[in-house]
Design goal:
alpha/beta; Oxidized Rhodanese, domain 1; 5-stranded parallel beta sheet; 5 strands; 8% strand
Length: 214
């Protein structure tokens, strides 16, 4: 039995854990969501394929390059966000993800939103909700902050016999760590950007419904 669970891929386990959330979306009030865009089978397929992920290396590079096409969204509580968050991130707690006041940030075509939390479950939940509401350009930070701390902030040097590409990855992460002030997860007070002061994002224009039809 232990071997059975050991051989299950992490993404399969994640998909199994997220299926109940997809079912719960059926009970979201009608005026807070639009009809489903994906069936549960299609949703599970997308989760197991991992197409919704940005890697920590990609996000580190985007942050250092100050790429304006990426908007990091921290879905943890405001207290956790104030304690530490990724540079340039905004805070939209998972509990507020259905708020109509925040729809302009989640349903827009100006930037690619990347949800993150400590791991990936909560960020994936935010992604599922947005996916089912028909919102585009939403993604998830693979591994979350736990992976970020272990591999970007404090990268470990590979063994001497490790393949050359492992050393190349280590050198890249070491450079990213230095550029991001590596070795610490502390956030200066003046850098904190709370939910109450979200940046202005222009909402995309809604298409007018065609007359008639069902």
């Amino acid at each position: 039995m232990k071997d059975f669970f050991k051989n299950i891929k992490p993404r399969i386990i994640l998909a199994i854990g997220i299926i109940p959330l997809a079912l719960m979306l059926a009970f979201v009030p009608e005026n807070r969501t639009v009809p489903y865009k994906l069936t549960i089978e299609e949703l599970v397929n997308q989760i197991t394929e991992g197409a919704q992920y940005f890697t920590a290396d990609q996000i580190a590079d985007y942050i250092v390059q100050k790429d304006p096409s990426i908007q990091l969204i921290d879905v943890r509580s405001s207290d956790e966000f104030d304690s530490y968050h990724l540079p340039g991130a905004i805070n939209i707690p998972l509990s507020d993800i259905l708020s109509e006041d925040l729809e302009g940030y989640l349903d827009q075509d100006v930037k690619n939103n990347v949800f993150y939390s400590n791991g990936t479950v909560n960020a994936n939940q935010a992604w599922i909700i947005c996916k089912q509401r028909g919102f585009k350009n939403n993604y998830v930070l693979q591994g979350g902050l736990n992976y970020w701390a272990e591999n970007i902030i404090n990268p470990q040097k590979p063994d001497d016999i490790a393949p050359s590409d492992e050393f190349a990855k280590y050198d890249f992460r070491k450079a990213m760590s230095a550029a991001l002030g590596g070795g610490t997860l502390e956030t200066k007070t003046e850098e904190v950007q709370t939910n109450a002061a979200l940046p202005a994002i222009t909402k995309k224009k809604k298409k007018k419904k065609a007359a008639g039809g069902c």
